[in-house]
Amino acid sequence: MSTLDDVDRWREELESKRAEKDEFFANHPQSPIPPEGRDAFDGLDYFPPAPDYRVAATATVHDDPEVVLMDTTAGREMRYLRVATLEFELDRADEDLEDGTFELAAYQQESPNEEPLFVPFRDKTTGQQSYDGGRYMELSSDRDLENGDELVIDFNLAYSPFCAYSETFDCPLPPEENWLDVAIPAGERFE
């Protein structure tokens, strides 16, 4: 979707994606839910859809991307390139939540590829209402990203990595530069 304005259509698409994901987790052979736990699985837990957490971000592209070593849940390190910094504003009506301008780094693996931007992050829900290893988002652009380009960051699509559901997976942990000092009550919950 190209605009932030069509909330009803966005909500329908979000609910459809969530139902698809629940079906995958419940029935697909590659589900991260161990086979013995799939019969009891009745769907992932999500924060309610929140349009305020679907924001436009301005990209600063790094022409000479820096290598970032991310620790993993298995105690290893994975190499990523910091390819862009995304700046966005959160403007919420709830007086208990901070407004402000925030940044998240976007990464890609070192090998040349056309993969989406990988945006792992932690926020003030981490370890309480969301997975203690952080959450992930993937962002795509329909062309090569340039300075000043706008991308939509939809925190409602933030998801817990597979290692939240099974220790057989080894997942990168969000680096400290992507620890947001604000609660993002959107996307997957995990308690």
From TrEMBL:
Disordered: annotated span: 18-45
Domain of life: Archaea
InterPro entries: DUF1684
Pfam (any one): DUF1684
Signal peptide: none
PANTHER family per UniProt: DUF1684 DOMAIN-CONTAINING PROTEIN (PTHR41913:SF1)
Protein name: DUF1684 domain-containing protein
Organism, as annotated: Haloterrigena alkaliphila
